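re: ur question from earlier - yeah i can do the single chain one, its not a big deal. heres the input i used so u can compare w yours
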Amino acid sequence: MFYRPVNIHFVQFAVRAGGAQVGIYDGPMVIPPEAEILAERWHHYQSPLDPLPPIHRRTFYHFSNSKPHDHVRTGNAAFDLMFYDRLPKKLNSSILTAQSTDGNFGWGIHIIEGPNKSIIAWLVAAVITISFVVAVMYDIIRDNADSGFAIGQWLVAALSAVLTGLYFHLEDIA
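and the output i got, formated as C-alpha cells:
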C-alpha cells in the first residue's frame, strides 16, 4: 500500500548460481545489441530500436495492471502487440540454464518502486481531520476551547512527525 512503481529502467543484468544472484551492470537505457539480435539469441521488433525507450513507463504500468482480454475487446490488440514486440526477449534457451563461468548476461526491465505519495498525503489529511474532531469533542465535553485545540495541535505535530519519518524510511529502502 505504501509503495508504487515510479519508473522503469531498461538494464543489462547478469544471473549467476542458477538464478540465486542477479546483478544490474548497465542502465537505465540499455537494450540487446545488434550482434545479439543477428545471432538470434535475443529479439526485439527492430534493430536498432528507434525511438527509445521501447515502451514509456506509463504505458508499461497500464499494460501490467490490465488483463490481456481488455485490449482485445477494445480493439487495441495490434497496438499492444507493437509494444510487446519492442521489449527484449530471450530466444531459444533459458538464461538460467546457459553455461557460463562469468555469469549469464541478459537485458530486461527493472521496475523502480518508491513511496506512494498520494496515500501518505491522504494519511496526513486524515491525521488533521482526526485532530480537529478530538479538539472539538474535548472542547464540547470540557467546555475549554484552549485545552481542546492545544491537544489537537499536539496530535497534528506528533502524527505529522511520524508520517514524515515513515515517508523517509520508505524512500530509503525503495
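The helical segments are 34-38, 57-64, 68-74, 77-86, 117-142, 145-173. not sure if urs matches, ping me
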